[in-house]
Amino acid sequence: MTIKSIRRAYQVIRISLHYGLDDLIPSKVTPWYFKLLRGCLFWLRNQHKDKVGGERLKLAMQELGPVYIKFGQMLSTRRDLLSDEWAEELAMLQDRVPPFDSAIARASIESELQAPIEDYFDDFEDIPLASASISQVHTATLKSNGAPVVLKVLRPDVEAKVHADIQLMSQTANLFEWVLGANNRLRPAEVVEDYRTTIEGELNLKLEALNAIKLRNNFLDSNALYIPFMYEELCFTRLIVMERVDGVPVSDKAALEAQGTNLKLLAERGVELFFTQVFRDNFFHADMHPGNIFVSREHPNDPFYIGLDCGIMGTLTDEDKRYLAENFLAFFNRDYRRIATLYIESGWVSADTDVSAFEQAVKVVCEPMFNKPLNEISFGHVLLELFRTARRFDMVVQPQLVLLEKTLLYIEGLGRQLYPQLDLWQTAKPFLESWMAEQVGPKAIAGKIKQQLPYWAEQLPELPELVYDNLKMGRDLAKNNNKLLDRYLKQQQKAHKSNYLLITSAILVICGTILFSQDATLWASYGCVAVGTILWILGWRSRPKFRKF
């Protein structure tokens, strides 16, 4: 590890111990070597004993920086894993991270615009509307048309902080791979590299703006999701300008209930949106913590989501999409044999895995989840059991699916908050059945033919020439094959003749030797040896000389 990484590792340990995070681990599950290491760092003491555990964890993550804040954002949605007190504390990491100085924000905005703020905006608000791990948001009015907008600007030096943490994670992952050796199914280095690509994309706000434009176009006619308009000409690497929209934070259930929001429909639409983005568009929002999701104030009986922060988007290969869809459907139909087979076909588990044993292991984990609403399902327990199953069958971690798994956790967490009685399975199953029918049915075949028609039409004039060339090539190939076959047969005939002569000569020589040792007539012994020698010479000379075909 580099000196820089070692320094950052010490900083992470120092901040963690400064807030007493080690005290939050129950003593009975703390390994002896951890206690020994803690004792060696005796000068680092808990300076916040007066604060509760959730607050200490929140403060530590804030000080550690963006990578850790994002982890806290994901944890805040997992009320099945955390108490309400802890979840509320960590929820502040979604959009209530301490802001940076507005003078720095102004300077950064003007640096990107290459002009004073007043040239483009009126009523710029120095007090930020929200502040998160990577950036903070200020409100203003667009001078050109009077439209209310928000300006999102990156935090100062955020790139250096993120890169330092990613470098530490990468070197730690390489160390783990070295320790684990060849039997490494976790693939930590690949997971970290995948995360590096993701978070570095989030540091480029211009890319976020382009993602938002694409996602908005995908749902222009949707009654389930609205993405704010991006003023692309005012979007840069460290600054973006977008339409300001008004909505209720998805985590504010009291406000949603007060306006009469249909929470059941809202929760169902959340599940449908996830599957639509993944399977229909293959372009999904992968940072759906409550700080990025709002609900419309209009038409509470027919509510729609408002999505923000498209910095982290996910895609899958066609093969992974198909395997996932088939896995989901097999799961909804309780076809555990099919799940086991799919895992083997996809290469996610070894080809020599015992299918029956794997089928039973999956059944034990998944069967208790059926016919139960979200509030009766412990996803924390399910995840723990799945990890145990993975370890038992040497299941290999798929880095390309990490973003999807994270998004699934967000979706489940939101559904648990909004409408815990939601039947997740019955909501998702019809969509997946319809999608699979479109992928493998007659409609899918017709669609693929229609998609390929322009290409086929372009190649049609060349078709006669291509047919002639292929027929000619086939004829020439057949001639060459016949010549090769004739040559091969002649060589085989020569080989047989040579072998016959050599074997006969060996027999004659042996017979001559036997006759000589038995004091028989000498002329018979000499005759056998002489004829044998002649035949040996003829056989040796008639050997085929093999040439390259």
Give a topology summary.
Blueprint: H1 3-18, H2 32-40, H3 53-64, H4 66-76, H5 84-95, H6 102-113, E1 121-122, E2 130-131, E3 135-142, E4 148-154, H7 158-180, H8 188-202, H9 205-218, E5 225-226, E6 239-243, E7 247-249, H10 253-258, H11 263-281, E8 284-285, E9 293-296, E10 305-307, E11 313-314, H12 318-332, H13 336-346, H14 355-366, H15 379-392, H16 402-418, H17 424-440, H18 442-459, H19 463-517, H20 522-541
Parallel strand pairs: 5-10
Antiparallel strand pairs: 1-3, 2-3, 3-4, 4-6, 7-9, 8-11, 9-10
Helix pairs in contact: 1-3, 1-7, 3-4, 3-5, 4-5, 7-8, 11-16, 11-17, 12-13, 12-17, 13-14, 14-15, 17-18, 19-20
Outline the structure in words:
- Strand 9 and strand 10 form a beta hairpin.
- Helix 11 runs antiparallel to helix 16 (402-418).
- The chain has helices at 3-18, 32-40, 53-64, 66-76, 84-95, 102-113, 158-180, 188-202, 205-218, 253-258, 263-281, 318-332, 336-346, 355-366, 379-392, 402-418, 424-440, 442-459, 463-517, 522-541; strands spanning 121-122, 130-131, 135-142, 148-154, 225-226, 239-243, 247-249, 284-285, 293-296, 305-307, 313-314.
- It is of the alpha+beta class and 549 residues long.
- The chain is built from 20 helices and eleven strands.
- The longest helix is centred in the C-terminal third of the chain and has 55 residues, at 463-517.
- 60% of the residues lie in helices and 7% in strands.
- The mean pLDDT is 79.
- The chain has four domains: 3-94, no CATH class; 102-314, no CATH class; 318-441, no CATH class; 476-541, no CATH class.
- The two termini are 56 Å apart.
- The strands form three sheets. Strands 1, 2, 3, 4 and 6 form a five-stranded antiparallel sheet that branches.
- It comes from Shewanella youngdeokensis.
- Pathway: Cofactor biosynthesis; ubiquinone biosynthesis [regulation].
- It is an enzyme of class 2 (transferase).
- The active site is at residue 287.
- It is found in: Cell membrane.
